[in-house]
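A brief tutorial aside. Many learners find it easier to grasp structure tokens once they have seen a single protein encoded end to end. The record that follows does exactly this for DDHD1 Phospholipase. Read the sequence first, then the structure, and try to relate runs of similar tokens to stretches of the chain.
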Amino acid sequence: SGASLRYSTGTGGEGSEGEGAGLASSESGGSGFSLAAAALPERRRPGGGRPRYEVVRELGAEEVRWFYREDRKTWKPFIGYDSLRIELAYRALGAGGPAEAREGEAAAVEPVCVRSGLYEVDVASAESYPVYWNQTEKIPVMRGQWFIDGTWQPLEEEESNLIEQEHLNRFKGQQLQESFDMEVSKPVDGKEAIHSLKLSRNHVDWHSVDEVYLYSDATTSKIARTVTQKLGFSKASSSGTRLHRGYVEEATLEDKPPQTSHIVFVVHGIGQKMDQGRIIKNTAMMRDTARKVEEKYFSNLATHVEFLPVEWRSKLTLDGDTVDSITPDKVRGLRDMLNSSAMDIMYYTSPLYRDELVKGLQQELNRLYTLFCSRNPEFEEKGGKVSIVSHSLGCVITYDIMTGWNPVRLYEQLLQKEEEELEDRWMSYEEQRLLEELYITKQRLREIEERLHGLKASTISKTPVLKFKVENFFCMGSPLAVFLALRGIRPGNSGSQDHILPRRICNRLLNIFHPTDPVAYRLEPLILKHYSNISPVQIHWYNTANPLPYEHMKPNFLNPTKEPTSVTDSESVSTVPSPTTSPVMVRRHYGESITNIGKASILGAASIGKGLGGMLFSRFGRSSTTTPQTLETGKEGAEGDDKKATTVGTPPFPQSSSGFLEPPVELEHRIDFELREGLVESRYWSAVTSHTAYWSSLDIALFLLTFMYKHDQEDTDKSNLDAI
């Protein structure tokens, strides 16, 4: 690779050069190269500091640092592992190595996988691009050699190359005598520049071999410099910017991200109007938030959770912009919100678009999983897990893909039921004869269909299959419950998740929602009816000290008869408020009108063609009495105990009549989890914004990671106990 160290030790021996570094192309996880042990000798410093005498040499690969810039913000450094491999690829290209490496045509170099394998860097074009999703804007990358004091931001590459060339021409082979602590800028008062270089808008002065300053040649800078120098200040201290050669930290191969043990596919709803088609940015927000939580709470684990956006709608044409063109302009904000939620459901209940949507999501999930495993072959070998986080109607489509549900099968079941009812009632001889004829014809039709299936796989009744088992299925702002209710699912007598989603398909189902989200519904009352009177589990604030584990939380009962009107002292929450949320407030109904508009739209859309209008009108006609039981959620954190439960106002129901205090059956695991509602939130405003407020929530990020790291944390705790 031509990687060389820039100094030789006091013994006079030449610094080792990492020539002939192994640059084997690799598809695994995030490394584009595997490095031979001799490629980059470790820099050993006697006593942990820089050798007393150094000789100016070409920068080693470990001293150069590569940077990337997203959204036109400041340059961010790649971690040492990534930077080293990019630099070695750059030198292999013949752009920065010794003369013999630059002779002839530049060798073709494989792209380098960076940033936990999510991106690749094309060294030739100095660009980075994502591996798992499409992005129109390429991310520029830059090679840093000279850096600004304090911020350690790199100088622009063109200027940096000129300064480096001049520095080597003038000082190569000269010795340095300075402590290794380069961060402390020494005053250079009274020192004259021993060398200078003119650039297009700046000039550089060398006051000594490693005291280098950059000056702006703009007129205002010259005037300021002249004034301060007349006042007795030196030129450097008045307006110069000190430069450092080589990055503040040396790049090492040990500075690498932990291995990915869990991948999370993030699935969006269909409309994407409210999110402006930004599932990639939403996933990036969730990923960045999760990184902060990982560093704070899970830094002791050697594994890593990766979030991948499932961007699948852009490939579907659907109706084009027809719906937008027929939407009136009045109250546009509210209409856009409903278009992004209710319209999603109309698309999905349309026989014209449903198969297209299911197939689009299923294929994209399988494509991403196959691609990830091909680049990370050890993922499956080491038992890597897969979870899905779905938003809005994406929850319903993901559920249907996992379970293989489709309306054709439901229609066949209804027909079969009608036939059974016909057989049970009295009928004339003519009716019997026609029914037998119909039965024989249907049997013949099934035989023909089976023969046809043998020749060509059916695209209508084929059950969509995923190539992986889902460990956790997180629903956010999900209308799944209302879809299941309208498909005929009713509460049972078992507290098992299998009633709505078998454990063999998905190990754990979790339903997350904001209390004022107009699109979200509860799932627990579909399994056990009396859970409509038990509040959802309150999600912990991310900065709560020693929170009670979710599995140890006691149920809080809702009061269907008495409405609290104010927050009492006993109901206040003792935990520290989160910066993103205010203390929980007891729910009132004055903000429900707008929430019910959204819920009515969803119910109306979901029932199109099902003949359920009467049921819907009767349900919403009774909303004033049923909503507190079925739609209203918990009023305080479940970390409260029996005393808290009584402050909610639960009347002393006799156990024999109500069964609420000691229900005969409990859920194996809680499913409904609710974000805490803030005191400062406007009910009307939060109803509009809450449906898309999940992506950057630290509370949700901690919640997701708590369940995904559950087994890793338990294994770590067990190994620590064994060691003790």
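Self-check: The first strand starts at residue 3 and ends at 4. If you spotted this yourself, you are ready for the next section.
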